């Protein structure tokens, strides 16, 4: 029976078939995903660590080389490339295409965790990440304040940006929101080399004394009247004045206040970049979607 004959003798059945096909097409179109970079098996894993104040040679010897040795024996590695620069080290591992990327990340993380204690204490704990095209920002936002009387201060603007950040993170399909150009205040100690030399204090010994003094130490248990309480000695600095008044021991005996060796202040770190909108200082926000989210729906 030909299609023409079937259409004439059984029009209801043919109408039902075409209706089903049209309905399936409409349903598929309405639920069709959209993404600029579809999910792919990306066989790249990066290991990144920051070692502030160290030169490229120290980064290569004390940071990058141990990380390379730790991961070099992993199965499936195709190439290992490393970058040693002032203050940070980066190692990129390329695996074969048949390697499961999630398994590769876990294997690299285990290998790095095994040598963390051998890395410099001043460096940050290495971060292991899988490179993904889907991790690129789908939306870049900026927040600025109008100039003039009654304009909010930078602290108020940053607080508003953090509030907006939390709101966007709660949107269905949003994976991560990162703030740019919004540094936090930090304790800064600017030492005077002449003062250090005159008192005979080395930089490393001063750093060690400050680290050892800025700690909260557990002091055991106190049992009284059938109750047990945990004790600890509070040693962390509570204010900038307390840091400036800290007595640094001298090699020949005696001590000197830290403020005599330099400037102690609580302020913003040095600008390494700036974000401006219409000529005004602004705070940027990078929005990254979840791996399985629709880029159009999330952006809307």
Short structural summary:
The chain is 33% helix and 29% strand.
Fold and architecture overview:
- The strands form 5 sheets. A 4-stranded antiparallel β-sheet has the order 2-3-1-4, with helices on one face.
- Strand 10 and strand 11 (255-257) form a beta hairpin.
- With 300 residues, the chain is α+β, with helices and mostly antiparallel strands.
- The chain has helices at 3-9, 11-30, 56-71, 101-113, 154-169, 193-199, 203-213, 240-244, 295-299; strands at 44-50, 77-85, 88-95, 127-130, 139-144, 174-180, 186-191, 217-224, 227-233, 247-249, 255-257, 262-267, 276-277, 280-289.
- The protein is elongated and about 110 Å long.
Low-pLDDT segments, ≥5 res: none
Helix content: 25-40%
Largest sheet: 4 strands, antiparallel
Radius of gyration: 30 Å
General form: elongated
Reading the helices and strands in chain order gives HHEHEEHEEHEEHHEEHEEEEEH
What value does the average pLDDT take?
A: 84
């Amino acid at each position: 029976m030909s299609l023409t004959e079937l259409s004439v003798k059984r029009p209801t059945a043919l109408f039902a078939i075409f209706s089903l096909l049209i309905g399936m097409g409409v349903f598929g179109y309405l639920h069709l995903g959209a993404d600029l970079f579809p999910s792919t098996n990306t066989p790249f894993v990066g290991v990144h660590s920051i070692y502030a104040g160290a030169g490229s040679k120290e980064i290569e010897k004390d940071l990058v080389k141990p990380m390379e040795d730790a991961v070099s024996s992993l199965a499936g590695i195709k190439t290992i490339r490393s970058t040693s620069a002032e203050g940070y080290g980066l190692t990129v591992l390329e695996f074969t295409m048949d390697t499961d990327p999630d398994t590769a990340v876990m294997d690299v993380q285990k290998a790095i965790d095994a040598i963390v204690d051998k890395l410099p204490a001043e460096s940050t704990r290495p971060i292991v990440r899988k490179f993904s095209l889907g991790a690129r920002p789908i939306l870049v936002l900026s927040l600025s304040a109008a100039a003039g009387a009654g304009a909010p201060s930078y602290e108020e603007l940053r607080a508003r940006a953090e509030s907006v950040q939390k709101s966007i993170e709660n949107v269905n399909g949003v994976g991560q929101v990162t703030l740019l150009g919004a540094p936090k205040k930090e304790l800064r100690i600017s030492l005077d080399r002449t003062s250090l030399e005159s008192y005979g204090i080395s930089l490393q010994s001063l750093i060690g004394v400050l680290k050892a003094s800025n700690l909260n130490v557990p002091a055991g248990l106190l049992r009284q009247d059938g109750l047990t309480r945990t004790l600890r000695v509070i040693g962390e600095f509570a204010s900038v004045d307390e840091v400036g008044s800290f007595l640094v021991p001298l090699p020949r005996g005696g001590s000197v206040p830290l403020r005599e060796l330099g400037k102690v202040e609580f302020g913003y770190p040095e600008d390494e970049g700036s974000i401006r909108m219409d000529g005004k200082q602004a705070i940027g926000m990078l929005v990254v979607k979840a791996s399985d989210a629709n880029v159009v729906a999330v952006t809307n």
